[in-house]
């Protein structure tokens, strides 16, 4: 289909240093306050046992917070902070293989599968080479609500036979669910990162920047590339990298196993490689 993606979300881990951010008081002075939320750049342990403990606790808190989130509404504050902490730990584990593998072995079974699939997908993405001298200009905006995206994926699955989790994974990796609006190095655009020439052939007359149109166009492209018979081949046509194919497969498999993971990935922030290093583009402290 084309090029390197405009944003390969999990390419490089970032570790910051800060203290925890306290929740606002809830009720009177004798009320029990909920645990503090982690700061956006809270220090991350380099000890496998400690990191595993924090990741397990954060994952459980995040899953519980999901139950109070209406997908039609914006991401709640507690989900935002917990998801960022969760994401940063997994990014660290993806970058530092020995630490990551040792941490995975220490995780309880209830959270190990999600962490393992996410870390492995991130490592695949990190293996896709990019030219630091030819990076796109950075531009971000709000993503469509989760409820809308989930409906678009389902509609595309029914029409084109491409599973919704595959479309969600492509949307996630290519543009952080539409948050990253930068064109790629090769000029690919929109939430699903199409070259204009490819869009003319597969976009069915839609708007390359519209979330629904872009998702439908991607499903059309994958279907016509043989996704029903050989999904790997179709994904390779979409982005000519076996690492890309493996990453999409990992993220999709995890969302298919546990749909709550879609909410977690949606609540993650967009990171991007730049000439001066990796930057977090969205989330607390980023406007």
Description of the molecule:
The protein is an all-alpha fold. The protein contains eleven helices and two strands. A hairpin with a 2-residue loop joins strand 1 and strand 2. The chain is globular.
Order of helices and strands: HHHHHHHHHHHEE
Radius of gyration: 19 Å
Sheet with most strands: 2 strands, antiparallel
Unreliable sequence segments: 4-27
Number of H/I helices: 11
How many beta strands in the DSSP annotation? 2
Helix content: 40-55%
Main β-sheet, spatial strand arrangement: 1-2
The overall pLDDT average reads 88
- What is the rounded distance between the termini? 34 Å
Q: Please report which band the strand proportion falls in: under 5%, 5-15%, 15-25%, 25-35%, 35-45% or over 45%.
A: under 5%
Structural class: mainly alpha
Shape: globular
Short summary of the structure?
The chain has 11 helices and 2 strands; from the N terminus they run αααααααααααββ. It is mainly α and 287 residues long. It starts with 47 loop residues before the first helix and ends in a 7-residue tail after the last strand.
Write the layout of secondary structure elements.
Elements: H1 48-66, H2 77-95, H3 97-106, H4 109-126, H5 146-160, H6 164-175, H7 196-202, H8 211-224, H9 231-238, H10 242-257, H11 260-267, E1 271-274, E2 277-280
Antiparallel strand pairs: 1-2
From the structure above, extract its key features.
287 residues; two-stranded antiparallel sheet; 11 helices; globular
């Amino acid at each position: 289909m084309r090029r390197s993606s405009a944003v390969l979300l999990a390419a490089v881990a970032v570790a910051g240093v800060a203290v925890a951010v306290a929740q606002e008081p809830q009720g009177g002075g004798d009320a029990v306050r909920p645990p503090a939320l982690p700061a956006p750049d809270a220090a991350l342990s380099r000890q496998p046992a400690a990191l595993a403990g924090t990741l397990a606790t954060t994952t459980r808190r995040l899953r519980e917070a999901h139950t109070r989130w209406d997908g039609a509404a914006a991401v709640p504050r507690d989900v935002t902070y917990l998801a960022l902490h969760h994401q940063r730990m997994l990014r660290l584990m993806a970058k530092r293989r020995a630490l990551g593998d040792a941490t995975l072995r220490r995780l309880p079974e209830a959270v190990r599968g999600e962490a393992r699939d996410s870390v492995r997908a991130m490592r695949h993405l990190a293996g896709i080479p990019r030219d630091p001298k030819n990076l796109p200009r950075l531009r971000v905006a709000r993503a469509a609500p989760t409820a809308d995206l989930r409906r678009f994926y389902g509609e595309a699955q029914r029409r084109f036979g491409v599973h919704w989790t595959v479309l969600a994974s492509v949307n996630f990796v290519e543009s952080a669910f539409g948050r990253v609006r930068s064109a790629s190095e090769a000029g690919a655009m929109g939430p699903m990162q199409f070259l204009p020439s490819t869009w003319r052939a597969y976009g069915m007359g839609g708007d390359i920047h519209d979330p629904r149109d872009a998702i439908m166009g991607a499903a059309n492209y994958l279907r016509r590339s043989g996704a029903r018979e050989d999904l790997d081949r179709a994904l390779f046509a979409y982005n000519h990298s076996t690492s890309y194919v493996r990453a999409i497969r990992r993220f999709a498999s995890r969302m298919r196993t546990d749909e709550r993971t879609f909410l977690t990935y949606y609540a993650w922030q967009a990171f991007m490689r730049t000439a001066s290093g990796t930057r977090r583009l969205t989330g607390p402290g980023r406007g």
